[in-house]
Amino acid sequence: xxxxxxxxxxxxxxxxxxxxxxxxxxxxxxxxxxxxxxxxxxxxxxxxxxxxxxxxxxxxxxxxxxxxxxxxxxxxxxxxxxxxxxxxxxxxxxxxxxxxxxxxxxxxxxxxxxxxxxxxxxxxxxxxxxxxxxxxxxxxxxxxxxxxxxxxxxxxxxxxxxxxxxxxxxxxxxxxxxxxxxxxxxxxxxxxxxxxxxxxxxxxxxxxxxxxxxxxxxxxxxxxxxxxxxxxxxxxxxxxxxxxxxxxxxxxxxxxxxxxxxxxxxxxxxxxxxxxxxxxxxxxxxxxxxxxxxxxxxxxxxxxxxxxxxxxxxxxxxxxxxxxxxxxxxxxxxxxxxxxxxxxxxxxxxxxxxxxxxxxxxxxxxxxxxxxxxxxxxxxxxxxxxxxxxxxxxxxxxxxxxxxxxxxxxxxxxxxxxxxxxxxxxxxxxxxxxxxxxxxxxxxxxxxxxxxxxxxxxxxxxxxxxxxxxxxxxxxxxxxxxxxxxxxxxxxxxxxxxxxxxxxxxxxxxxxxxxxxxxxx
Amino acid sequence: xxxxxxxxxxxxxxxxxxxxxxxxxxxxxxxxxxxxxxxxxxxxxxxxxxxxxxxxxxxxxxxxxxxxxxxxxxxxxxxxxxxxxxxxxxxxxxxxxxxxxxxxxxxxxxxxxxxxxxxxxxxxxxxxxxxxxxxxxxxxxxxxxxxxxxxxxxxxxxxxxxxxxxxxxxxxxxxxxxxxxxxxxxxxxxxxxxxxxxxxxxxxxxxxxxxxxxxxxxxxxxxxxxxxxxxxxxxxxxxxxxxxxxxxxxxxxxxxxxxxxxxxxxxxxxxxxxxxxxxxxxxxxxxxxxxxxxxxxx
Amino acid sequence: xxxxxxxxxxxxxxxxxxxxxxxxxxxxxxxxxxxxxxxxxxxxxxxxxxxxxxxxxxxxxxxxxxxxxxxxxxxxxxxxxxxxxxxxxxxxxxxxxxxxxxxxxxxxxxxxxxxxxxxxxxxxxxxxxxxxxxxxxxxxxxxxxxxxxxxxxxxxxxxxxxxxxxxxxxxxxxxxxxxxxxxxxxxxxxxxxxxxxxxxxxxxxxxxxxxxxxxxxxxxxxxxxxxxxxxxxxxxxxxxxxxxxxxxxxxxxxxxxxxxxxxxxxxxxxxxxxxxxxxxxxxxxxx
Lengths: 521, 298, 287
Hints:
heterotrimer; A: 19 helices
């Protein structure tokens, strides 16, 4: 029987007794919402009970920090070279007598928020503080900038060097050179800088000499990692010595039938994807430490063209696409997809982050764990210096400024015991290298690395890579991000043959000039 | 007729005004103000820090007309909207006709059909992204297991990214439109069909003469809603293809997103937005005049 | 007989169409990371696990080697709660404004009715991505960024025009004699509305309430821009946190899986009422 709408023939009086009315409908909607939350909580509780019944929660490798309650901590700072400081404890971090009522906010992108939350918890315990970590989702630079524009509360936040340069130019973050020297003395400031690798310190300094961030992680992004199971099957015994050698090797792998698309290029669709690939491959091949002679010069003018190394890179990309050596779906991959893809073990070579050497040797995330190898430096450097830093955004007039500066120093330098705590923890737990030199020589860190590194000599490769890895000078310009967006849109067109590489290079050149002019240099 | 005048009553007009008042207040307070700001910024240059807004006349609009990426995005949007409207109208009608039949497990089937609408655009975009993935997607997997393909297909490529986005988006909004049409279908009296069969009118004739008039407004709603939704959505582009590969699926709304949130060029973004709004309004007016002109003659 | 066969085939096709694209992202929640990317994909997980769900909900759980892993650290429960708060409030306010307005616009010929209809239609054409910017700037000055109230207002700007418009068409379908009969029976106009019209319209109103709730619950772009990183972030915003960074496909799949539950509940409730949501052109129906 077909349902009929027979209301039109019923008398209104008879319909007065309709049960369901608006209030009920809304309560249904409300019930649904409540049910959803309750279902989530019930599932969670059930899961917890199930979980706790099966296995005891064993903490993964962590550094145990004993929180000393007294203010003076009798430890000495022992670093490589002896210092002229008094060794009566780390006096720059102090614990509060009473927990503050206002909350400090730290913002960052979504990498291992579980670890960051734990770090913040330890900070709160050590200093009797009140701080929180809030993740900014998705397009971090855009949303962080939007937050600054809107005047939202931020005390400490992540960023890459070009973010910092831009934010500093707009007055959203503080000069650590100024505030650390003013409040703690220039001795501490100089010590901090000398503890970093020179290229790291330089990367976080503006053109007029202001340090605007403390190091979070440093890595070479664009280091070639390879799957030795596949390369050995194709009869290749040596890692690639250069980008040109790499392109020859991937053809061999394909011709031997070992892999359909042997190379997973760094062309995924993120703001640090294809544009960065162009930068690093150009700098590597032109043997340039900062891109000044092949990308953008000292004054940020573009110096690339169809016949320069940068143009040749694009032409090579178009070639390998045409030869079917790369998976076409990479152009719409997110970073998670990109890592998952290499983790399948179906690709022989891929430019990755140095710290992902651990990810791909971990059976939880990789199908060829134990067989992922790092390519050493031979003819030229690999990748570019990818660094994250912690920036201080609190205005100096803010009553919480001193607390925020403490958070910055604790998180980005040493804790209450004088240990470079957070950096060391990252290195042990996720193999993130630090901008501080002493970390890679720390015995705890080296022991942690030895646990997962299948070939211990690769730790030496890493050290050498970090010494020569280039850093793009253009990242110090405040308009770089604008150009990067355009590059991310156009580079895929050149690689996939939709437009000619010459065209795209010319357009990117013109666009860079335009943006530079509009922003006043 | 008992006209109980001694009770104080609201007149027709007063009641109407009372009921409309919240809507008017809301419209003017909450929507008109941002719209006005946006319109003004389309005629200005907006600097962000410090925030200042300087009148600049038609500068932004002039820039639009010399911007090849604007035209590209406009074409992509037009293609996307056309495809979504076509797929949605066709599928909704088909599903509505199907659901109108006597079916067992009617509740279950309806709930399953409604499910894509109940999901968010976020889950829609990601489900389809994973489904169509050329590395480990289910669609490729099924075709491969069935022996139909030897190599995985790159579905979301330059040529077809817009089509797949249109399919995914239609998947999401079809259930709502289908049910609007279904509601209309269910008011059609059975006798009309029987009479038509007796009179010897074929299935096509029955459809056009009996079915269509009853669901005319539902079809109109479907056309209008699918046009509006498809023309103004940015979520699915950001989440499913990121405007890519390259810029092949960069709709006008995604272009606005890039202009505003990556280049922080608010004035320009506002100008493009208003052009888009104007185009959509023209389309809506066309729909209404075309389809209600005949309906008005009752 | 042939018709029945056709119906069954169509039914299966429709069910596959509705469920198949969703299927993989749901079962991936129960698979280990390295299994998710198998080629060809596993139709049923060969190595199922609950660890991912536990970790997303905030509990430690064993990893693929048996070693205990920390909970994932994403505020999913907070996102769920915020979404519930925002969506419920939006629905209540939207219905309170749209039902009376839709009633009047759908059944009475008030002065400047056409202008109002055009205005409502016009506000419906605003792309959310465009309207979020002035809201963003407005909220920055008055301090509503990252608050529930701010997002509620933004959602209302999307939902009220839509719901008013649907209700308009719906109220127009109610029999014309409804009010006249009520007057004869001695109700005041207001009384007629509350006691007679509303109960008759209940199914349609319920459906619109559910549509309003759903639209707010699922809304992504405004929630993302106006609440990301704040205490008021809704579930889609939290999901967005998980999709770019290095977090693992199965964890991400869990988040989508959790977000689907309310959707399924809603679909089941909605299907009962939505077939009664008949709409006609209000311009042809005037009392």
